[in-house]
Amino acid sequence: xxxxxxxxxxxxxxxxxxxxxxxxxxxxxxxxxxxxxxxxxxxxxxxxxxxxxxxxxxxxxxxxxxxxxxxxxxxxxxxxxxxxxxxxxxxxxxxxxxxxxxxxxxxxxxxxxxxxxxxxxxxxxxxxxxxxxxxxxxxxxxxxxxxxxxxxxxxxxxxxxxxxxxxxxxxxxxxxxxxxxxxxxxxxxxxxxxxxxxxxxxxxxxxxxxxxxxxxxxxxxxxxxxxxxxxxxxxxxxxxxxxxxxxxxxxxxxxxxxxxxxxxxxxxxxxxxxxxxxxxxxxxxxxxxxxxxxxxxxxxxxxxxxxxxxx
Length: 311
Ligand SMILES: Cc1cc2nc3c(=O)[nH]c(=O)nc-3n(C[C@H](O)[C@H](O)[C@H](O)COP(=O)(O)OP(=O)(O)OC[C@H]3O[C@@H](n4cnc5c(N)ncnc54)[C@H](O)[C@@H]3O)c2cc1C
What we know:
It is a single chain. It is built from 6 helices and 19 strands. It is α/β, with parallel strands linked by helices and 311 residues long. The structure holds flavin-adenine dinucleotide (FAD).
């Protein structure tokens, strides 16, 4: 098949971040009739990243904008089609997958879900303005930029503590700001954090505003018990108040964990034959560009094998 019936493809990819663009590159280069559906900018989370220092091949680092542009150009080189739209639902019709967007309906044999994840925002003044200029949601990505700095970490769960512990490799001092008087994180992380001389705690406190000039200089903190508001000087604010998988369109169709991440095996195969998951939207250890592109390549190759076996 492929191309005969309008809106019908061998492979449809949901999401045009690094996982989706890599899956598109591999699928279209394997001469599969491929469509990628993206509802925002090609590049996904990379488009909101100032400098990427840990993606191989760029010894001086690369901007998120540039890496997005390069990946998009390369993915389109082999004839992949793209369409702009938000995927709202995926259904099965026998072995066929039916993908409905806000504007149209598409059909395919193999579907690769690459819809990523998004960081939960604090939704306070200054957060957007200073994103990439002192406000960060990723210690692995940005920790090294804060060498010898004095920073705050917001959150009290596992991710806040593991990221804070990782950040102590770089920073001079780190204060964890938590809205309760006890942490939610696993005991072992709590013990490690409490024992680390670089980590201090500000309990019963919430961040109300992030302030600065060109970069972050302070956070405004409110004590939820006393109501008192103070300004706390800092060079960076790492916000770990949750990561949300963007998997609504396939909820109820493929198996997911309790947080909504798609469960897929080493070949990126989900619980439904012919549906694959790649990148941040799947349950995995490390959510980074390098792991997303690895998943994208694997998922496209697995989709190709799936289509061959059905012939
Ligand atoms: C601020 C920031 C800095 C980062 N820095 C680094 C770094 O330095 N190094 C590093 O390796 N990683 C970094 N990361 C993490 C990295 O960007 C992600 O791990 C990676 O982008 C995941 O790729 P993905 O393709 O799985 O998902 P995403 O990049 O999230 O892409 C998913 C795409 O799917 C689209 N989409 C979602 N739902 C739908 C739908 N229903 N219909 C249509 N389209 C949809 C989205 O619009 C998005 O474009 C950073 C992330 C952030 C937010």
